[in-house]
Amino acid sequence: MKKIMITGALGQIGTELVLKCRSLYGNDNVLATDIREPEPASSLSNGPFEILDVTDRKHMNQLVESFQPDTLMHMAALLSAKAEKNPIFAWDLNMGGLMNALEVAREYDLQFFTPSSIGAFGPSTPKVNTPQVTIQRPTSMYGVNKVAGELLCQYYFEKFNVDTRSVRFPGLISHVKEPGGGTTDYAVDIYFQAVRQGKYTSYIAQDTYMDMMFMDDAIDAIIQLMEADGVKLINRNAYNLSAMSIEPEMVKASIQEYLPDFELSYDVDPQRQAIADSWPNSIDVSCARAEWGFDPKYDLNKMTEVMLEAIKQK
Ligand code: SER
């Protein structure tokens, strides 16, 4: 992995992934692309950037032709809550974009990464310690897209020998870029509001456990998986990943260690709650640990400390 093209570079993961890849492989070796222009003073202005609508395969091909990457990281996608509001658009963007990216990877022999999600599980999946290989019958459009995406990655690996690699990300928590349109976003918003307002109203109900991970661990996991010896990778669809299984009261208690007056109340959003209820409480990450050494560094309290401090500095 030396020359990388990244789609969805202005998204929640893409923003930090581009910077990390540039620091490892050189600014000029990482082409960031997104459907929108970055802000004029964006952190991404330290290297090449191109506008790209991932549903435009011809343009994607042209960018690969001219940049000549050896790796494609396809991050552009609509998250779960937004996808549920506009399912047909979500299908077109999430599946159309992924097919284009896989086809480009096949044609130009690129190593390939795209994230799946805990959203690829559904209400009939075992909820606790969810195995790597298990029932996947999600009930959201986002989940349907993710399962289809996982199967496509496996298919392109087996049928066309494309070096596809993927993970099932849990909710990702970052102070750099706020997410947009996910079900797990509460676990990011809560930190920003704790610093700005001293209180937060959660749209996810008390006792709703979901897996989460700090963004630094997520980015490190992508790099580690992409650098891993392919021979050791048994799972070519997507590896379960998580660093913690948490619910809102646990985040509250952790924040109160630093901000004792922080208050948490609830105003549950039925749509996002239904999605959260259909996902696992905690997933088993033993395959990722065994096959390529996944080893997240942040637990809830360590993450809380870093989040609150970074948001205060802003
Ligand atoms: N964080 C994502 C979402 O909530 C899950 O993949 O949609």
From TrEMBL:
Annotated NAD-dependent epimerase/dehydratase domain residues: 4-228
UniProt cross-references to SUPFAM superfamilies, sorted A to Z: NAD(P)-binding Rossmann-fold domains (SSF51735)
Similarity comment text for this entry: Belongs to the NAD(P)-dependent epimerase/dehydratase family.
Name of the protein in question: NAD-dependent epimerase/dehydratase family protein
Highest classification ranks of the organism: Bacteria, Bacillati, Bacillota, Bacilli, Bacillales
